[in-house]
Specification:
Blueprint (H helix, E strand, L loop, with lengths): L6 E9 L3 H10 L5 E4 L8 H4 L4 E2 L8 H11 L6 H20 L6 E3 L2 E2 L1 E2 L9 E2 L5 H16 L2 E3 L2 E8 H4 L7 E8 L5 E11 L20 H9 L3 E2 L4 E8 L12 H4 L3 E3 L19 H15 L4 E4 L5 H7 L1 H9 L9 E10 L2 E3 L11 E3 L4 E2 L11 H20 L25 H17 L6 H24 L4 H22 L24 E2 L6
Parallel strand pairs: 1-2, 1-11, 2-8, 11-18, 17-19
Antiparallel strand pairs: 3-7, 4-5, 6-7, 9-10, 10-11, 12-17, 12-20, 13-16, 14-15, 15-16
Helix pairs in contact: 1-5, 1-12, 3-4, 4-12, 7-15, 13-14, 13-15, 14-15
Length: 535
């Protein structure tokens, strides 16, 4: 487990312990000291909950150009082709690397992986471990980190990135490390680093309904924005079409792989409705399926849609989807004999911190990888199962560059001052933070959801400006606590999403706005925001 000292220096500081962060750590470990910090227990994060699988060109009937084309089509004209080609070219080697670490993907023969298909893919190219692929990958990565002696410290939440400009150090602005809060003790450590890596995952908790775990509060994006890094394409927040709809179910995803294996979406009257919205039906890209479910629910006044798997044998469902079958059964739903009630929920941030193909942000020595980063791979909508492969491909690429950079021109010892509590008071009643947290998430769901209007975006912006002012005042008046740090980050991410959405005067991919319902070629460009644009 381990703890942090009040002051530490490492060559590589990695914030986040999912597939991207752990890939980076393993690739960098032979080139300097590595410290991985996780907000809660080391395995808790979006990787752990990824069900469907990891996409790569692995089948005899598949080609790299097919995977590239499927990704470009899903991305609705905004993908950077070079990023897509990099992922597709390097993906198979990363699958082999994961296998070498002991990841147990499902097989049809000792030397042949079982591949499934998901929405937007023209071929079966999804390697998986039943319906708990992320959990299996996370297990193997953590076990390898332990074997290699990589230091992982749990229950640490970064407060802010420290830059040379912030502390008055001469020379060009660059990242020096971070202030980090110990969740248990409330102590704040100074961790300086040759290179700081943001691998903090997504931001699903910015919305009221999400399939993300509680840790997904957009910390990396918010910290990078406050440090002065460029942020892009935050308007493209993917809503997964199918999350389990049940009053006791919390954040449970119903994998796209079910639709890949023949699942049928039905409305409350039992009608298969997707043919009315897209000729690809259930296998259309996620933006289209989520919007179709939303429209069908609104048209009929239904509380949910239903994913019907009852035409498939129970033995098939148990073999391929044991985790989903068991969880649904816990809630009284036997997916072999009754359709699963589903609703769209916030799932994946396709924008993020602007990076190049080596993970470098616009601030030297600050890297971003995985869901935190915006490489241009996903464009306006992520293709299913491209996220896990992105984490390992770009985690490795970032480490290749960072290991050369980390040991050059290290900041002098003591360059980062100790955390100054000053006259800050012990936090007041938690109800203030809880209320603001709830308000941010509700207004984002109601005003900045699957379908938007200019009027709703303006309302959201006005209210968020006030909320951010209240949160900022509270932040400076009281001692930092985990909930307050996450609320501050959520509010900043919410405002970034709203501002990007306000600027894009068209509908494209995941951004659908009734005032501008068609794509517009003038907007085949990124929406980029830097510090000061929101104030």
């Amino acid at each position: 487990m381990g703890t942090l000292r009040s002051r530490e220096h490492v060559d590589f500081l990695v914030l986040g312990g999912g597939i991207a962060g752990l890939t980076f750590a393993l690739e960098a470990a032979d080139h300097g000291s590595v410290l991985v910090l996780t907000k809660r227990q080391r395995s808790e994060g979006n990787t752990q909950y990824a069900q469907g699988g990891i996409a790569s060109v692995l089948g005899a009937d598949d080609t790299p150009e097919m995977h590239v084309q499927d990704t470009l089509v899903a991305g609705a004209g905004l993908c950077k082709r070079e990023a897509v080609e990099t992922l597709v070219r390097e993906g198979p080697d990363q699958i082999r690397w994961l296998l070498s670490l002991g990841v147990e993907f499902d097989r049809t023969a000792p030397d042949k992986l079982h591949l499934t298909r998901e929405g937007g893919h023209s071929r079966r190219r999804i390697a998986h471990a039943k319906d708990a692929t992320g959990r299996e990958i996370e297990r193997a990565l953590l076990a390898t980190c332990e074997e290699r002696g990589i230091r992982i410290v749990e229950d640490q939440i970064a407060i802010d990135i420290v830059t040379s400009g912030k502390v008055g150090l001469g020379g060009p602005n660059r990242a020096l490390g971070a202030y980090v809060l110990d969740r248990a003790t409330g102590d704040v450590s100074v961790v300086s680093a040759g290179v700081t890596v943001l691998a903090t995952g997504g931001a699903g908790k910015v919305y009221l309904y999400t399939c993300n775990p509680d840790v997904a509060t957009g910390d990396g994006v918010a910290m990078a924005y406050r440090a002065g890094a460029a942020i892009a394409n935050m308007e493209f927040f993917q809503f997964h079409p199918t999350c389990l709809f049940h009053p006791q179910a919390k954040n449970f995803l119903i994998s796209e792989a079910l639709r890949g294996e023949g699942g049928i979406l039905r409305n409350g009257a039992g009608e298969a409705f997707m043919i009315r919205y897209d000729p690809r039906k259930e296998l259309a890209p996620r933006d289209i399926v989520a919007r179709s479910i939303d429209a069908e629910m609104k048209r009929r006044g239904d509380d949910s849609a239903f994913l019907d798997m009852t035409h498939l044998p129970k033995s098939f469902l148990l073999e391929h989807f044991p985790n989903i079958y068991a969880t649904c059964k816990e809630f009284g739903i036997d997916m072999a004999v009754q359709p699963i009630p589903v609703v769209p929920a916030a799932h994946y941030l396709c924008g993020g911190v602007v990076v190049d193909l080596m993970g470098r942000t616009t601030i030297p020595r600050l890297y971003a990888i995985g869901e935190t980063a915006c490489t241009g791979l996903h464009g306006a909508n992520r293709l299913a199962s491209n996220s896990l492969i992105e984490g390992t491909v770009f985690g490795r690429r970032a480490a290749m560059t960072a290991r050369e950079e980390a040991v050059r021109e290290v900041a002098p010892e003591g360059a980062i001052p100790d955390w100054n509590v000053g006259a800050a008071l012990a936090p007041e009643e938690g109800v203030v933070v809880a209320h603001n947290w709830d308000e941010v998430r509700r207004l984002m769901w109601n005003y900045v959801g699957i379908v938007r209007t200019t009027k709703r975006l303006e309302r959201a912006r006005t209210r968020l400006a006030l909320l951010r002012s209240e949160i900022r005042e509270y932040y400076w008046q009281y001692r930092v606590a985990p909930d307050l740090i996450e609320l501050r980050n959520l509010a900043d991410v919410a405002m970034l999403i709203v501002e990007c959405a306000r600027r894009r005067k068209e509908s494209r991919g995941l951004h659908y706005i009734l005032d501008y319902p068609k794509p517009d070629e003038k907007w085949v460009r990124d929406t980029v925001i830097t510090r000061g644009d929101l104030e």
